[in-house]
Amino acid sequence: MKNPEETKGNIQNHLESKITTFELKASGYCNNAYYLETESKQKLIVKQEKEVQEFTPQNSLLIEAKIARKFREFDLSIPTSRVVFVAQNPDMYGYEYIEGDLLKSVWKELSEEERVNVCKKLGNFHAEIGQQISREEATKLGITIDDSSDVHPETLEEYEENIRNMDILESYRTLVTKAKEMLDSTSDDAVFQFIHNDAHHENILINDKEISGFIDYGNSEYGEVAKEFSRYIRDFPDYFHYIVEGYEEKSGNKLSYKRLVSYSCVSGFGEIVEDYLRGGEARIRTDEMVRKYRELLF
Hints:
Blueprint: H1 4-12, E1 19-27, E2 31-38, E3 43-49, H2 61-71, E4 83-87, E5 92-96, E6 101-102, H3 103-106, H4 112-132, H5 135-141, E7 144-145, H6 153-163, H7 170-185, E8 192-195, E9 204-207, E10 210-214, E11 221-224, H8 225-235, H9 240-251, H10 257-267, H11 269-278, H12 280-297
Parallel strand pairs: 7-11
Antiparallel strand pairs: 1-2, 2-3, 3-5, 4-5, 6-9, 8-11, 9-10
């Protein structure tokens, strides 16, 4: 692993102004993210591929940078990253820092009206990127095309293992089995388009009660919209319908709520199992989420 000074020097080679502030902001499974400031008062985030990755990401950082640049060509309602430079060996790209706090950290501070406004704007955004990037354009960008209307094969394998796990409450296993049946029965309702595919409250930035940015396109693909709303349902079970409303109004597409919720339930069953087995507060949260899924599905 490169030491911080070596990494800083490598990044400096791609900038015109001298770095004055440099720090590791986050370290993920595949990439490191660095925050830096320069003498010219520029603030950047630089994502750099790790020498040893815990798994192979869906999109390389080079493709992620292409997506970010493509987004900047459109008049999107939510700001996206302006790419400053792209480099290889190691793969990395730098983009202008977007001011704001994670939606996760400020959600409780928002009023009811502000929450609804944020949710509807999120729905509009997902409609817009679906309208702007066609299947053909996604192929040109090197983005994964997923025509499947089922959950990811690895997720399906995990689901089948957990269904047989007698340590999990039977009521949980029964609920998710019914959700899978519902998902299979609504395959004709699947809507396909370009999706961010990692939409959740830690990739959305809020500044002054408004969405200031949407980040991280590492999992973007051309696939089913149900994936796009899956985490929203777990993050905001009492508000996700506003996101769907915003999406439907902007896109003209009609989505099946049963399909969206059943997809979220099945794809999120692994997390439910992990939290249940962890016990304590995690199990309490799981009980509440399962109750909410049951309410939404039936």
